[in-house]
Specification:
Layout lengths: L2 H15 L2 H5 L7 H24 L2 H7 L3 H21 L4 H8 L2 H13 L5 H22 L5 H26 L11 H19 L6 H25 L5 H8 L1 H14 L5 H29 L1
Length: about 300
């Protein structure tokens, strides 16, 4: 897959991830852990169907024989699905988002430490600029209603995401003779199952209406299953740090959805911070394209 196509698919994945906020605002009675449970539950159903179609009946034999990278990645997906929801019940959403903005930096450090990747200067600068953009968007709000416990839980999200991208890249980079044939698609299903099981006790008694269940079913399929499978595939073509960096677009897209469909007019700081994130990603891609052209010549 060409790099521009891989980046385009990554942007599509973040666009799908970003609809969660505006959709959950339309819910009648489902809240907090119940939202996470139903979303993960329908994610499981969608993945069972998708993996059966994509891999055939042998998918389940492969899952039973899966090696440690699949299970580690599955645990990371589960933490990513649930830690955000737990964190926002303990501290402000702004504080959680600022913690998540550390994801690209954590991923870059993990890439250097565990994979030996030397990231170009342009990517380091893009990471710092994008983090500043998120900080600009939510910096003032992040320090109101701060909870140390909530902040620590929020930190689980970028650490789990970074660990997941590293595991996926580690498997994708190995030759077949060294276990590079591991099918990582089932890891998304493992994460969804673990998330659903973990949040069910806290979600009871279930209060979602049929309207809510319909919306949450859409989230499970469109906002989780499809983009997560896309990202697993893209781990073969994009660096872990790039995946994490482009993932920050989820915040920008989420603000845009809330503006267009929720009537939430963003502040000047939000617009400026979002512009910095987009600028960082655009510069990283433009400079990278220029570098690839020079190398090809």
């Amino acid at each position: 897959m060409s790099h521009p196509r891989a980046v385009s698919l990554m942007i599509l994945a973040t666009l799908l991830w970003s609809i969660a906020g505006v959709v959950t605002r339309q819910l009648d009675g489902a809240r907090s852990f119940e939202v996470t449970f139903w979303r993960s539950f329908f994610n499981v159903l969608a993945l069972v169907i998708a993996l059966t179609i994509m891999r055939g009946p042998g998918a389940w034999r492969t899952l039973l024989q899966a090696r440690w990278p699949v299970w580690i990645s599955g645990l990371c997906w589960a933490l990513m699905y649930t830690a955000f929801m737990v964190a926002i019940t303990m501290t402000s959403v702004a504080n959680v988002l600022v913690m998540i903005a550390l994801g690209p930096l954590v991923t870059a450090l993990f890439s250097r430490l565990f994979l030996g990747h030397r990231l170009p200067l342009r990517t380091w600068l893009a990471i710092l600029l994008a983090a500043c953009g998120i900080g600009w968007m939510y910096g003032k709000e992040a320090f109101s209603g701060v909870s140390l416990a909530g902040t620590l839980v929020a930190c689980v999200v970028p650490v789990a995401a970074a660990s997941n991208w590293i595991v996926l890249q580690f498997v994708a980079s190995r030759p077949h003779s060294e276990g590079g044939e591991d099918d990582m698609m089932p890891s998304v299903l493992i994460g969804a199952v673990l998330s659903a099981l973990a949040t069910l006790p806290a979600a009871c008694p279930l209060q979602a209406s049929l309207h809510d269940i319909g919306l949450l079913a859409m989230l499970g399929v469109v906002q989780l299953a499809i983009p997560c499978l896309i990202v697993v595939r893209l781990s073969r073509d994009l660096l872990a740090a790039e995946i994490s960096l482009y993932n920050l677009l989820e915040v920008v897209f989420g603000v845009t959805w809330a503006w267009l469909w929720g009537g939430e007019v963003p502040s000047a700081a939000t617009l400026m911070g979002g512009s910095l994130v987009v600028l960082a990603l655009a510069l990283n891609e433009i400079l990278g394209l220029r570098q690839r052209r020079l190398i090809s010549c």
